[in-house]
Amino acid sequence: MTDPAQPVSQAQARMDAYEQQQRAIEKRAGQIRHIVLVMSGKGGVGKSTVAVQLAWSLAMSGQKVGLLDADLHGPSDALMTGTEGTRMSTKDGLMQPVSASGGLKVVSMAMLLEDPDTPTIWRGPLRAGLLRQFIADVDWGTLDWLIVDLPPGTGDEPLTIAQSFPDADGVLIVTTPQKVSQQDCRKAINFAHAVKLPVLGVIENMSGFVCPHCGEHTAILQEGGGQQMAEQMQVPFLGSLPLAPEIALLGDEGKPVEGGDVPDTVSEPFARMVDAIVHRVEETEEQDA
Ligand SMILES: Nc1ncnc2c1ncn2[C@@H]1O[C@H](COP(=O)(O)OP(=O)(O)O)[C@@H](O)[C@H]1O
Ligand SMILES: [Mg+2]
Prior knowledge:
alpha/beta, Rossmann fold, eight-stranded mixed beta sheet, 9 helices, 12 strands, binds adenosine-5'-diphosphate, binds magnesium ion
């Protein structure tokens, strides 16, 4: 027992604040049905594209969906959801997520910055602190899904998120077909094993290009590497997405692929990917029950 006559030490006060925040995190997590973490070993392989489009597709099917951009150094989700330039407001002491089309709730570092070109020059503990605030101090409400878009690699942010959501449904690994990406993704898979989160599966992005003029199929960055890696690491393979100019354009324009002006060669693989992820989440839920 603390002696009421003694001033509470600063360390104790910090500990109390941390525990209070931990309880707030657990309360928020308890109001979210499914939590999916999107990871990869490398940057630029399409994590944000997959996270944003998955979140949007689920939201457009009428579900309540949040998208947490946990990439504090390279936040892309505001731009990719058409919410760039909108700042988060505060109500009753809680940050309010920004609403994208389809009712998707987005939270990103970009929504705290005055200028999107300002770099975040923060060491690990500060980044971990902000991510915890992005869970504890955001008015997420009840959600069917929270999709977390992680920065590349297996550093502070994935660890903070994994520790904040020990009961998350699992981790989705995004890779391009090349060996150089697979190698780093194997580390991301082993990270998920180490923090005891299920690996939902692997998505191979930028897998093949269909020429819009002649229809010829070219494996620009090779093909099949994601599936091979999934087999080797004994985790499910959940499908591939083609390399397509429409995907890059819609990303830059902040628009959803679903319902967008895209050929079937693009919309169908996206729809199959979303179905495979939802199916896999339901499957792991049944296994746990
Ligand atoms: N399948 C694809 N076809 C074309 N461009 C893509 C594809 N996937 C991603 N991109 C583009 O590549 C860039 C990097 O993708 P992004 O999702 O930001 O990767 P990450 O989050 O892994 O760094 C973005 O401009 C995005 O629009
Ligand atoms: Mg990204």
